[in-house]
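User: Continuing from earlier, I have the next pair ready.

Assistant: Great, send them over.

User: Here they are, in order.

Assistant: Folding the first of the pair now:
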Amino acid sequence: MKIAILSRNPKLYSTRRLAEAARERGHEARVIDVLRCYMNITSHAPSIHYRGETLTGFDAVIPRIGASVTFYGTAVLRQFEMMNVYPLNESVAISRARDKLRSLQLLSRRGIGLPITGFAHTPDDIEDLIKMVGGAPLVIKLLEGTQGIGVVLAETRQAAESVIEAFLGLKANILVQEYIHEAKGADIRCFIIGEKVVASMRRQAKPGEFRSNLHRGGSADLIRITPEERSTAVRAAKIMGLNVAGVDILRSNHGPVVMEVNSSPGLEGIETATNKDIAGQMIDFIEKDAVAGKTRTRGKG
C-alpha cells in the first residue's frame, strides 16, 4: 500500500513511528506537510498538488493535523476523501472532536458521563454560571486550547469571577467545568483503535499542578481500567466517528467522566508507558479496513 502521513514535521516521534511501522510491513509511506498542499477543486478530477507535483496513487492517508491548522488540514483531508483515498480518521470526525463544545454536546446527548459544564457569553451571567457547576474550585477552559494551554483552576469564587470576566472581556469562548477533587490531579488516557481500547495509561500531574498533560511535566504509568471505563472510552470515540482516538477520562465519585476525545493522540507517552507497538497496530488496522471510497461522509459536512 501507498500511505500518506499528513504531518508538518517528519521528525516528530508519532510521525516517525508511523512511517517506520508502515515500511516495516512492506508499505510505502510518505510524510506530507499539509500546509504545503494546494488543491484543484473540480467536479470530475479533484486533485492535490504538493511542491509542484500532483499527488496520486495513495491507498490510505493518516491525518496528524495539529490543532492550529485544523481548518486547512481538514480541507486537505477532505480532498483526499473526494479522491477515494481511505482516511484513518475522517475529516468530519476530526472537526467534530476538535470543537470542544460540540463534542461535549454530542457526548451528553448519548448519555456519556461528563463533568458538569457551563457555557456563557455575557458577564452578567457569571454568578449563576459558577453556581451551576457547583461553585469554586472550578476549571475554566479556552475552547481553542490544547495540551493544557488555556486551562485555569480557580480555587475561590472571587478568582473564578476575575478569570471569567477577563476571558469574556477578550471575547474568548470558554467552558466552565466542575473540578473533580477525587481525581487528585490524575486522568486516564485510553487509546482506541477500531472500537477497541488497545492501551491505557494513568497520567499524574506534577506536584503543585492540576493539569496531567505530559507536555506540562506530568508522569505516565500503566493502569488497568474497569469494564465501565473501557465501555465509556469506546462509546465516546464511536460517537465522534473516530477510528483512532485518545479518550481522556477522570475517575469521579459518580463513575468515569470524559474530559476530551483527541483525534490525533500522541504515541510517545502511551508507547513508553505500555511498551506496546501502537503505531504498528494503527497500520494493521489500515491493512484490514482500508477500502477505496469507504469514507462514510465522502468529504461532506
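And the other member of the pair:
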Amino acid sequence: MQIFNHQKGRDPLYKIWNSTKENMIIFFHSTGGSIVFADATYPIEKGAVCFVSAGNLHYTMPDDPSTYDRSKIFISVREMKALLGAVPTESNFYKLFTEQAAVYAKVPQNEYSMLEKIFLDASNKSPNDFSEARISSAFFYLMVVISDYATHQIKTPDTFMARTIEYINSAYANEISLEQVCKVAKMSKSHFCRKFKATMGITVMDYIFKTRIAVAKTLIASTDLSISQISEECGFSSISYFCQKFKEEMGVSASKFKKDSKHIKENKKAL
C-alpha cells in the first residue's frame, strides 16, 4: 500500500491516469476543475473522495494545475481482497468496491479533518509508528466513509476505450502499432483516431508514450533496476531515446529523478 499526502501542483500526468493492478483513493484538498470517468464528469471539490478500481480509467482537469492539491492511496488487488475478506459478499458494501469501476463521494466538513489526518499520519510515520495493521484499518475507514457518502457509482461498459486501455496496459512493454490497437478497438483507423483524440485530448500513440513514462517513473522511484533495464521494461527502443524523452516529459533526467527519489526514501526512513 502506498500513501501520498498533499501532492501539490501540476502532476505530469494530471490529465490522464490508468491503474493497471492497483485500486486507488483520491482525496481532494483543492477546488476547481473536473474528474472524468468514461462518459461521466464530476467536480473537483474540497473534501470529495474518489475510489477508482484497478484496471479502470480516469483523468482530472483542474482549472489551475499549479494549485492542484490531492492525496492518494494505492492498494493492490491482493491487499484489497484481504481487507474485504470478512465482509459478506452479498452486502452492498462488498459490491460497491468489487463491482463498480469508480465511486465518487462528497464528504461533509465534519469528516474532513479526520480524513486529512489519516493521510498525514499514514504518509509521514515510519512502519514502527504506524503499523501495516493500522494503515489497513485507516484505509477501511476511508472505504466506509466513501460508502456512507457516495453520490455516484460508475460502471465501465465494454466500450472501445475500455478495450483499448486494457490492451495498452498489458502490452506497453512491447512494440505497439496503430493497426494493432485499431484491431483491438474493432474500429477503422480514421474513425478510431478521431474518437480517441476527442475522448482523451491526445493521440493514442501519445497515450502509449505517457503510459510508458508513468510506469518508468514508478520503477525508477521504487526499484533498484538500472535505467537501462527500466528503459527496456517499459518498451522504449533504446536507452538514449528513453533518457531524452523522460527529461522532456519530467523536466529532469532519469538519473537525477532516481537520485532524488532515493533521497526522499532515506529522509522518510529517518523520520
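Worth noting for the second one:
The two ends are 19 Å apart (CA to CA). The chain has two domains: 2-154, 160-263.
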